[in-house]
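Model it.
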Amino acid sequence: MLAKLYMNMCHAFPKFRKATRKQMYQFMARYYQKRDWSFMNFGYAPEDAAEAPVLQSDDEINRYCIQLYHHVVSAVDLRGLKVLEVGSGRGGGADYIKRYLGPAWMIGVDFSDRAVSLCRQYYHVEGLSFVPGDAEHLPFDDESFDAVVNVESSHCYGSMTAFLAQVRRVLKPGGHFLFADFRPRERIDELDEQLAHAALQPIRQKNITANVIKALDADHERRIAHIRRGAPKLLVKLIQEFAGIKGAEIYKRFQSGAVVYKSFVLQKV
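Modeled.
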C-alpha cells in the first residue's frame, strides 16, 4: 500500500519525485558502499539469444542489467567518440560502455554526489570519469558530446522538457540520444510528444516491457539474495520494491500494462 501511494505521489508531483529520489540515492550510496552493487536498472532479456553480448566472467553476475545497456547503446558505433551518461548511478553502465564499446571518453554525471564519490573510488579506467550534476542543468559546454546515454533515470526528474533541452544543447550536430525508461501507460503519448518537441529525430523505438519482465523473472533469485545479504532488516521490503522483484508494485504494473517500458535511439539534426 505504501509503495503504491509513493508511486502515485511521484507521478503527480515532479518536485516531490525528484527530491525524494535524490535522498534515496544519497542514502543508498552512504549505507551500502560495496562494489558488488554497481547497477540499479531492471534489466533486459532479448528475444534472440544472438543479441546478448559476450561478457567477461566477472561481468556475468550483472548480465541482465548489462543487457539493458547493450540493447540501448549498441545501435550506434561509439568507438572513438565522446559519450555522456546522464544518471550514471553507481557507475556500472558507464564502466561497461567504456570497457566494451570503445568510446574515447566516457563521462558519467549524477545528482547524487555520494554516488559520484563511490564511482571515483571504484573505477580506474583510462578515459572514464564521473562528475556531480543535475540532468536539468548539465555542467557541460554546448555541442560537447557525440552521444548522450540515459537509462532508467528520467522518471526521477522534475522536468523532462528541461532535461531534453539540455540533451540537445550538449549534443554535437548528428549526435545520438540513446534512451530507455518507463512511464505510466497514460503518459506514453506525453513522452513521445516531449521527444518530438525536443527536435530529436527518431531512428528506433521499441516497447521492451516484456523483455524487462523476462529479465526480472530470470534475475529474481540473485536480487533477493543480494538484498537479504546487504540490506538492514527494516529496509528489506522497501529495497525489494525498488529492485522490482516479483510481487513488487512496479513489477505488477509492468505485468498489467499499467506501466510501459520503452527504448529509443534519436539523433540531433
